[in-house]
Amino acid sequence: MAASATRSPWYSSLFIQLLVAIVAGIVVGWLWPDVGGSLKPLADGFIKLIKMLIAPIIFCTVVLGIAHVGDLKSVGRIGVKALIYFEAITTFALLFGLVVGNVVKPGAGFNIDAQTLATGAEAVAAKTGDGELPHTVEFLLNIIPSSVVSAFAENALLQVLFFAVLFGLGLAKFGEHGPPVVLEFIDHLSHIFFTVIGWIMRLAPLGAFGAMAYIIGQYGIGSLGSYAKLIAACYVAAALFIVILAVVTKVFAGVNLWKFFLYIKDEMFLALGTASTEVVLPRVMAKLTNAGCSRTTTGLVVPTGYSFNLDGATLYLSICVLFLAQALGVDLSLGEQIMAVLVLMLTSKGMAGVPGSSFLALSATVAAIGHGAIPVAAVALLLGADRIMDSMRVSVNLLGNCVATLVVAAWEGQLDRERMRKVLAGEDVPPLDELAEADGSGRGTPVGAQAGSRD
């Protein structure tokens, strides 16, 4: 009853604010495309504000988690289990995308003449800034930072994570004789960063409004028509894949994914509105920890998943390979489709943080298939629809990484199921300071009262 008496007005809910902002952005971009196209700085500014705190938050979370666990074997087990899960689920996403692409045939009817794609290579190069995806060895070596400062300065999440693990293990080595002042300092630092995140999050509706207005103003609602079948195929595939994730979550973690979705609905809408999962990384980590996942598991799995567990992106890529072939009237054999999956299993792992990464991955895949009737320049056919797909990719990517954390935490025995049940049911639980600060309240209110679906 106390919760009802102190409940905030409906209009102060971040979910409502984001919903209004996204709808307003669509309207502005549709009716006044020039105005909408000029509002991109609102989104860019908000995203930059969040990104400047991601690296230190990951560092603090991982260091504190590992230092308190103090077990190198436990850290290693979590990492290995996470990678096993990532590889299994992303491979399934690729195969699932091929099934959808073969059934729906999103490229059928385009009848594109390959000779008309002469300028496609230049268009793709402009989109990707003439960049390229790192090779496997290069990607793995890049996890090791050239210096600690550069890892933080360049916001290289895997490099920050790598250093944080070593630093946390170094602190844990001291055991009870270690310098508690260092851990206390990092703990206080973590609280400060989450407090600042709380302040920045008040600007989230503004960032979502600017991003949505720009997308619609720049690309137009009319662009949806010509790619309707491809867009529909991708979104239907995403919906079905989320159902599969729900089964995985229930079977392996004992968690109801719908209730969990309602718990993180603010973060989902913010990711959808800004077309970025990075902007919600700090809050998602705080909410997962609050819901019963250990800080160690959350700190290791979520940032790693941002590079290794891009479920939405891999689903999209496999569908697009078939779309390009069908648009050009090419019938890919089973062997060629399997070759595409094998190539995408490698290229999809190095996509995070690379401009135009989906085009680079598709270009590498088309080249590897070696089918002369599908020129690499054909990838330019997707330029008109790629931006519209961001909402699908980020939502599945974000939900996929949350599921990965839940599954690995349960697998490792680091999931507090009773706390999870209470939080998802909206019951009061002992508050975690990080989430209260990330919410911008600073009140330490029971998270269960905020977490459920009763906004």
TrEMBL record:
Cell membrane found in the keyword field: yes
GO MF annotation list: fumarate transmembrane transporter activity; malate:proton symporter activity; succinate transmembrane transporter activity
Highest taxon listed in the record's lineage: Bacteria
Keyword annotations: Cell membrane, Membrane, Symport, Transmembrane, Transmembrane helix, Transport
Region Disordered, residue ranges: 431-455
GO biological process: L-aspartate transmembrane transport
Membrane-traversing stretches: 14-32, 53-70, 82-104, 156-172, 192-215, 227-253, 315-347, 359-382
Pfam families, per database record: SDF
Listed PROSITE patterns: NA_DICARBOXYL_SYMP_2 (PS00714)
GO CC entries: plasma membrane
Classification via InterPro entries: Na-dicarboxylate_symporter, Na-dicarboxylate_symporter_CS, Na:dicarbo_symporter_sf
Protein location: Cell membrane
NCBIfam families tied to this protein: PRK01663.1
Stated name of the protein: Sodium:dicarboxylate symporter
